[in-house]
Amino acid sequence: MEFRELVIGALVGGLLGWLALRSWYAARLASAVTERDVLRERVLDLEATVSAEAETAALVAPLALSLDRVAQQVHTLERDRGEQFARVAVELARVQSSTGELRDQTASLVGSLASANVRGAWGEVTLRRVLEVSGLLARCDFDEQWTGVTMSGAAVRPDVVVHLPSERHLAVDAKAPMTDFLAAQADGLTAAERAKFLRAHARSLRGHVDALASKGYWTAFEGSPEIVVCFVPGEALLAAALSADPQLHEHAMARSVVLASPATLLALLRSVALAWRQDALADGARELLTLGQDLYARLGAVGRHTEALGASLRKSVEAYNVFVGSMESRVLVTARRMHELGLASESVSVPSPEPVAVAPRPLTAAELLGALDADLERGGLTRPMLVDHADSVERRGPGSIETAAG
């Protein structure tokens, strides 16, 4: 009994162990299958990754080459930039040096322009330069320091007197008020202080205008328009004064003074130069008209001589034809009769001259005929009388034609 229980227990234990082992193997098998599937998927993923990496490498290879080139270019640019910065530093040093020299020269110039004599000389030199650029000629179209006497008997001497066509003259005087203008350019000024200096600059220029108006330059030069040009040798000088005193132009014009900067005066003088050229063209046209009138008047003498020569030629042809007729009717008849009688040599023949049928071409040009008739009418002659005159010339001989022609 106990043996059977043991056998049954062993069988039951074996069965349970087999069942447990089977479950374990089944679990391991399932786990192995799962791992196989995972490994297969990983292998597929790795294959896909390797393929993608190969394609990426193929695509990235040109990009890598381009990046290498870019790196080289960047390196070159960095090197060039360093060299350029070095050159810029050198140029900046030069600019700083030049700026310092310019500052010193500007200070020296400002100091020089503080002198009234220097300012006056600068204004006169600038005025002369504008005159030369405009195309006017010294001592021909303008004179410098030309003295005149006004109606009040005062002697005046403007800087320049510009000569206009038709014996007219225009006085130009250079004025360069700069003291207050230069003071307004100083550093560290407030807007109010700068405006104060500019108003003083405008008042100074207004004073020059009044002084020029009081001199009456236009009364000192005959034919001068009733104005005088006040030349300000700097655009900035005039602009600053007009900005501080907008009524300055009207004030000057009311006193017959024209304010002119270099640009304004250049335009005015260019107009004067053009007027001189137009005047020269008008003189040339008048001279050409006079020559044309003289030439047309002389056509009468040419027509008279031509008509006399034609009449003489006609008479010569007529006389020749009369001579040929007389020779044929009187001389050649006797010569032929002598030949018939055997009194003449057989080797000698007597030619028969032909009459001339061509007559001189008569004058038909209206200019020659009209001038000829007018000339003959002034002399109390007519063209038939001129033909008779030619007949008398023909009878006297060819030498008389020259006398008649004279």
TrEMBL record:
Pfam families: RmuC. This is DNA recombination protein RmuC. InterPro entries: DNA_recombination_RmuC (IPR003798). GO terms for biological process: DNA recombination. Keywords: Coiled coil, DNA recombination. The lineage of its organism: Bacteria, Bacillati, Actinomycetota, Actinomycetes, Micrococcales. It comes from the Bacteria. Involved in DNA recombination. Belongs to the RmuC family. The keyword Coiled coil applies.
